[in-house]
Design brief:
The structure holds two protein chains of two kinds.
Chain A: H1 3-10, H2 16-22, H3 32-54, E1 59-66, E2 71-78, H4 88-93, H5 114-125, E3 130-135, E4 142-150, E5 155-164, E6 171-179, H6 185-198, E7 203-208, E8 211-215, H7 238-246, H8 252-259, H9 265-274, H10 288-300, H11 317-327, E9 332-337, E10 341-343, E11 346-356, E12 367-372, E13 375-376, H12 385-392, E14 402-403, E15 405-406, E16 410-418, H13 435-487, H14 495-502, E17 505-512, E18 515-522, E19 528-536, E20 549-553, E21 556-565, E22 570-576, E23 582-586, E24 593-597
Helix pairs in contact in A: 3-5, 3-6, 6-11, 8-9, 12-13
Chain B: H1 4-26, E1 32-36, E2 43-46, E3 51-54, E4 58-62, H2 66-87, E5 92-93, H3 94-100, H4 112-126, E6 135-136, E7 143-145, E8 148-154, E9 157-162, E10 172-173, E11 181-186, E12 190-194, H5 197-205, H6 208-212, E13 214-218, H7 225-238, E14 242-245, H8 250-261, H9 270-273, E15 279-282, H10 285-290, E16 296-297, H11 300-310, H12 318-330, E17 332-333, H13 346-358
Helix pairs in contact in B: 1-2, 11-12
The chains are: A alpha+beta, B alpha/beta.
Chain lengths: 601, 365
């Protein structure tokens, strides 16, 4: 036997399932910690996609339970349209099986690898089948399937099938058990939180090892499912064109008009002519060279960009702002959605938001939230075009410190939506550097940067005013009493300075020896009628004068006085208590009021 | 109060600062204070007095922002504290002052640097040294050994001390307030200020102070204010030449410069602290070459320091240019103790006598 024969005997076709078993990292299963995130991500993506297609508001449950030393049970349940029983084994037990692969529209999952890869991973680490329950309507029963994948053939293997009782009228529940750890719990919650930010219509309940979390929806409007569009003549490759030609019995011009977007009769004839083809000859009869010529002619044809309105589903400025406000308490948030655009015939659009201050960490790099088609990108931040664009902007122009990435209490969200998001690899962690996309990201961030700058300079102006009010109303009186002690003379009256500098209504709150005193001095030239709100744990029952209204919420009392102070006059209220809390004034414009808490350090 | 005039001055000048603020507030203006700007840009070498001094630039600190108002509040607390301390004839250290501020609420210092800096501000405003406020630093004063008789006003009465006969081998310890010392008499021909304790002890052990009638002063590295004030006063009152003997590296040259010309941090009192007539003995870079002293290679930091000294006005003489350039080309530095390689007596028998006579000192032994 020759060596070639010997080798030939060893050569055989490899099943996709076998291939992925050996290349788990390609699908995001390279480590047990990552496996859990990938599984949840794939299941949640599918759930959201399914709900979107059915036009229902997603109600998703994610459960992670420890079943053994290092075995975890992952449950993801949705209220989507459900899966017809015959399809269940294929959806979960066959790699590369999916409904969205051939469609040209924005969707989360595409290749149909995700969830079946998790099934495969479970099978490899615990040997357990995946349990799927699905129901397609209230009149129909729920089916429970035990699914595995035949690694040799990439065909589903049904380990069990029965009709069960289920409390949901429609939806799908998948239960997968595999070896993992919840070391990445923080990352997992981050992923769900970010998912909730870009899916404001979804409610996600989470239970991890007994702990529960809720990511509530901020919008009660189901999003319109993006519609599939026909391929654009600029965004097609020879293989796809050949398949389409093989399936068509039309003449060339009709083939072009009916199979592609943005091609009319006139354009079709022009394309045929420049490819040297007769418009009326059947497209099936084209030689391979003719097909190549046709493709070249299509790509050179002057046709409008593909429609972006229907096939893309931007989140929208208002919803991004609302969901960011819900998940991150910040002082400033602004969002922008750019108009749709096109790269190599693929429609795309970019949305972004910038948040500042509040509970964001003031140290270190800015928080960066990257999204592609409403899916958070959790890994490979450094390899992503979004990160590169952020680092490429001169943030100092917008009064933000920068060392590569911007620094400080800044949050930057970028969402790229496209019928074909150009990822750098199959694990879909990073967006590739396509110039058209980079340009849009940079433009939208610059726009938002200018808004942030306006906010920051306004804030600095207010701070300066507050700082001055504090110096004049809180510290100078202390200097006065200390200086009087040194020179052994009576304490000078500092309200003169206060009036001269402030020219406002000054409200001071001070607590001494268990008595709280609130003073209002009118340093303006006009009579001031104001409502004064004092919110603190003190009930103020003995207040003189008594407040007009007192309300209590969770041990915090809001005491409201309505008062009028003539120019140069002073009003005061006193009660027993321990102070603290906040004082607010309504009735005069904010620039005419200074509130100073003398107890604050 | 003991040192009546000085303490009275301190007391009055501190209160007058507070009085100025009091009047300002009475008139309805925001209290403020004017101080020379204390940045490197506002420190200049004064050719006439040959020391570093604060320039003419001034800045106004006015209580119109929370930060400056807080500064004035802290200053008024400190003035109030110093006033009480002076009246009760007590004293405290800079560190104690920092801890005392713990009870001052808003006026509490966040770090000792802040309180030290504020005291320097008060020195500038009153034109007095902090010792006049009864404030002293923590560090021990350095020591002195030689034919000098002085009288120190201690808290327990006057003490007359001869710095050879009445002290142990460690010498006489310089008190933090040198103003409490009165110099009575001396039998010295010069003062030698020595950087390291090892060399100071070597000179005493070898009897150099007796043989050459030298007053030996231990600098203890970068010298404290009291040590510099001591050198200034001995030089000034007895008209004695002062020589500075340090290691042969760029950092030691800066010790010499601070003795002779003053330091940036205390530029406001250079005229009290600096001794412009002090001369540098060595270790000179040429000594490293001529005596073939054991040496270490210069580090990158050493080289950078030497290069910055080349453009420093304090080292702008031909002598220093030549020596520094030589050191850069040798690439070496040596310690004072390196002379021990030629025997323990070499430094006192040969090196110092030769250097001192080179520098024009008539040695009478």
């Amino acid at each position: 036997m020759t060596l070639a024969d010997e080798l030939a005997r060893q050569q055989r076709s490899i099943s996709v399932a076998e291939f992925f078993e050996k290349n788990k990292h390609l699908l995001g299963f390279d480590s047990p910690t990552r496996g859990i995130i990938t599984t949840v991500k794939e299941a949640v993506d599918n759930a959201l996609d399914a709900c979107e297609e059915a036009g229902v508001l997603p109600d998703i449950y994610v459960g992670i339970l420890r079943c053994g030393q290092d075995v975890f049970r992952i449950i993801v349940e949705d209220n989507g349209p459900g899966i017809v029983p015959e399809q269940i084994p294929f959806v979960f037990g066959k790699l590369l099986y999916g409904s969205r692969f051939h469609q040209i529209r924005q969707s989360r999952g595409q290749q149909g690898i995700g969830i079946s890869a998790a099934v495969l991973y479970a099978q490899l680490t615990t040997g357990l089948p995946t349990i799927v329950i699905s129901r397609t309507g209230p009149a129909l029963p729920a089916y429970r399937y035990l699914v595995q994948i035949d690694i040799q053939t990439n065909e589903p293997r049904i380990a069990g099938k029965e009709v069960v009782e289920w409390d949901r009228t429609h939806g799908t529940r998948v239960q997968i058990e595999f070896k993992s750890t919840i070391a990445a719990k923080k990352k997992l919650l981050e992923y769900l939180k970010y998912t909730s930010v870009v899916n404001p219509h979804a409610r996600i309940r989470v239970e991890i090892d007994g702990e529960t979390f809720l990511f509530e929806r901020v919008s009660d409007e189901a999003i319109t499912c993006p519609k599939a569009i026909k391929p654009h003549p600029h965004g097609i490759e020879i293989g796809q064109l050949m398949r389409m030609i093989a399936a068509s019995s039309s003449p060339c011009d009709e083939f072009l008009v009916s199979n592609f977007s943005r091609i009319g009769k006139k354009t079709a004839i022009e394309i045929c002519q420049s490819a040297g083809l007769s418009p009326r000859s059947p497209v099936m009869s084209l030689s391979p060279q003719d097909q190549k010529n046709l493709l070249a002619a299509m790509q050179n044809a002057r046709v409008p960009a593909p429609p972006t309105q229907t096939c893309l589903s931007p989140i929208g400025e208002e919803l991004i702002t609302r969901s960011l406000e819900k998940e991150f308490q910040m002082d400033f948030v602004k969002a922008r959605t750019r108009p749709g655009s096109v790269y190599s015939g693929h429609p795309f659009l970019v949305e972004a938001a910038i948040g500042y201050g509040g509970k964001l960490s003031p140290d270190g790099n800015a928080t960066i939230l990257r999204f592609a088609n409403r899916v958070p990108l959790m890994y490979q931040q450094g390899a992503c075009a979004i990160t590169a664009c952020i680092a490429g902007i001169t943030w100092k122009n917008y009064n933000i410190a920068q060392s590569g990435l911007p620094l400080g209490p800044v949050l930057i969200l970028v969402h790229v939506a496209s019928t074909n998001v150009p990822f750098t690899s199959e694990s879909k962690d990073a967006i590739a550097g396509i110039p058209e996309i980079e340009r849009e990201i940079t433009l939208v961030l610059q726009e938002l940067g200018r808004e942030l700058k306006t906010y920051l300079s306004q804030r600095d102006k207010n701070r300066l005013a507050e700082d001055r009010a504090r110096a004049v109303c809180a510290i100078i009186p202390d200097i006065a009493s200390k200086v009087a002690e040194i020179v052994e003379m009576p304490v000078p009256d500092t309200s003169l300075i206060e009036g001269r500098i402030m020219r406002r209504i000054v409200v001071k709150k001070v607590t001494r020896d268990g008595r709280v005193r609130i003073e209002v001095r009118n340093h303006t030239g006009t009579r001031g009628a104001i409502s004064l709100y004092d919110i603190s744990p003190d009930a103020g029952r003995d207040a003189v004068p008594p407040p007009a209204i007192v309300t209590e919420v969770e041990g915090e009392y809001t005491k409201m006085w309505q008062l009028e102070v003539a120019p140069g006059e002073m009003w005061a209220a006193e009660y027993g208590g321990s102070g603290g809390g906040t004082v607010q004034v309504r009735g005069v414009s904010p620039e005419n009021v200074a509130v100073v808490d003398l107890d604050a350090e | 109060m003991q040192n009546d005039t000085l303490e009275k001055k301190a007391y009055e000048r501190l209160i007058s600062i507070a009085m100025q603020w009091y009047r300002q507030m009475e008139e309805g203006t925001i209290p403020s204070i004017t101080l020379p700007t204390r940045t490197k840009q506002n420190i200049a070498y004064d050719d006439e007095s040959e020391v570093w001094k604060l320039g003419d630039r001034e800045s106004v600190r006015s209580a119109h922002t929370a930060k400056s108002a807080l500064h004035l509040l802290k200053m008024s607390y400190v003035i109030w504290f110093l006033k009480t301390q002076l009246r009760e004839n007590r004293s405290s250290t800079l560190r104690e002052l920092y801890y005392i501020s713990e009870g001052w609420k808003k006026a509490k210092f966040s770090a000792q640097d802040e309180s030290n800096y504020l005291i320097e501000d008060l020195e500038i405003l009153t034109d007095l040294q902090r010792e006049a406020f009864h404030l002293r630093p923590e560090e021990d004063g350095a020591t002195i050994f030689g034919p000098l008789r002085l009288k120190e006003m201690t808290r327990r009465g006057e003490r007359v001390i001869h710095c050879q006969e009445d002290v142990g081998e460690a010498g006489y310890q310089i008190p933090s307030n040198v103003e409490n010392i009165e110099f009575l008499e001396h039998d010295a021909s010069c003062v030698i200020a020595i950087e390291t304790g090892g060399m100071f002890a070597r000179l005493i052990e070898n009897g150099f102070d007796e043989e050459y009638n030298a007053i030996l002063v231990h600098l203890k590295g970068q010298p404290a204010r009291s040590t510099r004030r001591m050198l200034h006063r001995i030089s000034d009152e007895f008209h004695l030449p002062v020589y500075v003997f340090t290691d042969g590296d760029p950092w030691s040259y800066r010790i010499y410069a601070s003795v002779a010309y003053g330091a940036i941090k205390s530029a406001h009192m250079s005229e009290l602290l600096a001794t412009p007539r002090a001369q540098f003995i060595g270790v000179q870079p040429s000594d490293i070459r001529d005596y073939n002293l054991p040496a270490d290679a210069l580090t990158e930091k050493d080289i950078a320091a030497l290069q910055s000294e080349l453009s420093d006005p304090r080292f702008a003489s031909d002598y220093w240019k030549e020596q520094i350039s030589l050191q850069l080309s040798l690439g070496l530095k040596s310690e004072q103790q390196a002379f021990a390689a030629r025997g323990l007596d070499f430094v006192t028998r040969e090196y110092l006598p030769r250097r001192l006579s080179d520098m024009g000192l008539v040695i009478r032994s």
